[in-house]
Write a structure and sequence with these properties.
The model has no long low-confidence stretch (mean pLDDT about 95). Helices cover about 55% and strands about 10% of the residues. With about 325 residues, it is mainly alpha-helical. It folds into two domains: about 210 residues, 3-Layer(aba) Sandwich (Rossmann fold), CATH 3.40.50.620; about 70 residues, Tyrosyl-Transfer RNA Synthetase, CATH 1.10.240. The protein has a three-stranded parallel sheet. Strands 4-5 form a two-stranded parallel ribbon. Helix 3 runs antiparallel to helix 14 and helix 11 packs parallel to helix 13. It binds adenosine-5'-diphosphate and tryptophan (TRP). The site of adenosine-5'-diphosphate has 15 residues, from helix 1.
Amino acid sequence: MARILTGIQSTGAPHLGNLLGAIRPAIDLAHQDDNESFLFIADMHSLTQIKGGSELRENTYSVAAAWMAFGLDTDRTVFYRQSDVTEVTELAWYLNCFFPYQRLTLAHSFKDKSNRLEDVNSGLFSYPMLMAADILLYDAEYVPVGKDQLQHLEMTRDVASRFNHKMGDTFVVPKELIREDTQLIPGVDGGKMSKSKGNTINVFDDPKVLKKHINKNIITNATPLEDSKEPNGSVVYELYKYVASEADAKSLAAKLRAGGYGWGHAKKDLLEALVDGFAQERDEFNRLMSDRSTLDAELKKGAERARLVAQPVLERVRSKIGF
Ligand code: ADP
Ligand code: TRP
């Protein structure tokens, strides 16, 4: 049995790219029989960017609701809010005291912003130590992350080894499980779907809103209705392939190639696949978002379970450092 842990940024309702590229595979991994998994919403990390209580709170709720709507089993997975287990900030401080300042100045999370030093708060600077604490506090063995998080994992291993070396064996040194982004879901403009590019599709949106968005924003070429159209490479068809069955995708490709079937028709097919294909998830998401007490209760249950694992680890650390 392996203990797997990962954190999710709480930067708002996940889009189609997040759902297919990260959330579904993570849930599959978490539910694998012999894994013990910890999954948390990294709202303390989000605080390095978001300064506004209601925005941060809403983001956390929508992330939690999305994971649960996509089938995360909160009995099999310890699912919690980072800020509910404040032990992590204590451990982060200890780790800060064991990690060289010079090494932190090399972190991408900080360097990306370092041309505008006035925008960098100290929290962003020590972000990697909070992330190391997230992992080490639970004796996690494997940490599934995207490639962009590799350096943070290296720093986690580094600080754990430095501590173990100076103070005697204390931490489990974790390994990363790099998620190769095999499926890169395109956005409505054809580029990689990303929050920062404003080209996302939110499957939880009301079908009417979704319809307007798709008709207005998905780019198509100006091939006349009666002409044959090449499906491959068109945004509508590329998106359709990800959300429809293989048979339906083949059928749409054939209709487009045959001519007499316009991009408007294809958009209607895509809308239908999104509306029908995610109907259950959308209903569940909306139900949870209008029932915060269930979300709070689930996250609280997760935090209590997380604490039971975290506290003895923290005690181990405190006794080593002489507290
Ligand atoms: P964004 O680019 O919208 O800010 P994040 O960087 O927060 O998204 O990504 C969260 C997770 O979702 C990551 O694991 C990332 O690999 C995955 N992801 C984001 N965009 C896509 C996409 N267009 N296709 C597939 N996976 C994606
Ligand atoms: N920094 C990660 C990201 O941007 C989120 C995160 C915070 C995390 N703590 C973690 C991921 C611990 C894995 C383990 O995606």
